[in-house]
Write a structure and sequence with these properties.
single chain, alpha+beta, three-stranded antiparallel β-sheet, 62% helix, 20% strand
Length: 319
């Protein structure tokens, strides 16, 4: 009985293994290559698949999602004989699992070597300055070559990016000095432009200020002259309305003489010739006033006394 039990156990195990090998579950966005006796039979897609156990075998499982592969820096010589190190990143996707399995031994290594050779061809026709400023052009040219070459491998190159372009250290120092000089130049130009603009604005402001000040002074002078003219006109009209005689004018002239002599710096006082006429007119006025007083007193003595009294009354006014 024991050998029969052992055989049954072996059969159960074989059946279980056969079931496991018969049922193949492929994840989403994946594919599997099936070989029968070492020859390609079919490609298993995502889902539940049935294969012949012990006859069919899974050769390779391939991820159909887009892959990102960074490549290490590669030394490339430019047209002006400078060595630059370029880091590249490739975005690719497997579109044909069978071709990716049988058309190339290792498509990752093949893409890397193809990228290096294509970069050398592209960068070899550019100088350093153009290489540093033409990343989009290099990416487009590199992608076109890679996509065309990897098509027969069942690979589609979606994007190619240059992650870094590193020139030699001496060139980097020279570029840094040049950039610093350019920045200093731009700063000096901007400073000069700012100073020039500030000077222009200051001059414009001073010009406008002087114009406004001159206009204000002109208006003030015009108003002042108009006021003085109006004052003179008013005084003139008042004088003509009062009809003054020579005596009043002589008296006013004598009142102005002390004001002419005011001031500590007046060492010399010139008496105008018109003062004689003024004194004559004033003495005539006092004489007439004295004659009027004498006639009322009745004698020469009375007239003299009256004249003395008149002098005493008018003296404070003269002083």
């Amino acid at each position: 009985m024991e050998p029969i039990i052992i055989v049954l156990i072996i059969l159960v195990v074989l059946v279980f293994i056969a079931l496991i090998k018969t049922i193949q579950v492929i994840p989403q966005a994946s594919a599997a290559i099936v070989e029968r006796f070492g020859r390609y039979t079919r490609t298993l897609n995502a889902g539940l698949n049935i294969v012949v156990p012990f006859i069919d075998s899974i050769r390779n499982r391939i991820d159909l999602r887009e892959q990102v592969v960074p490549f290490p820096p590669q030394p490339v010589i430019t047209q002006d004989n400078l060595v630059v190190n370029i880091d590249t990143v490739i975005y690719y996707q497997v579109t044909d699992a069978r071709a990716a399995t049988y058309e190339v031994a290792s498509y990752i290594q093949a893409i890397e070597q193809l990228t290096v050779t294509t970069l050398r061809n592209i960068i070899g026709g550019m100088d350093l300055e153009r290489t540093l400023t033409s990343r989009e052009e290099i990416n487009a040219a590199l992608r076109g070559v890679l996509d065309e070459a990897t098509g027969k491998w069942g690979i589609r190159v979606n994007r190619v990016e240059l992650k870094a372009i590193e020139p030699p250290t001496s060139i980097q120092d020279s570029m840094e000095k040049q950039m610093r000089a350019d920045r200093d130049k731009r700063a000096a130009i901007l400073t000069a432009e700012g100073t020039r603009q500030a000077a222009i604005l200051t001059a414009e402001g001073e010009k406008q200020s002087q114009i406004l000040r001159a206009e204000g002074e002109a208006k003030a002078a015009a108003l002042r002259a108009e006021g003085e003219a109006q004052a003179i006109r008013t005084v003139f009209e008042s004088i003509h309305a009062g009809d003054p005689d020579q005596k009043l004018l002589s008296y006013q002239y004598l009142q102005m003489l002390p004001k002419i002599a005011e001031g500590d710096a007046n060492k010399l006082w010139i008496v105008p010739s018109e003062i004689g006429d003024a004194l004559k007119g004033l003495s005539g006025a006092f004489g007439n006033f004295g004659s009027m007083g004498g006639g009322s007193g009745g004698g020469s003595n009375s007239s003299g006394n009256g004249g003395a009294n008149t002098d005493r009354r008018e003296k404070p006014a003269i002083d």
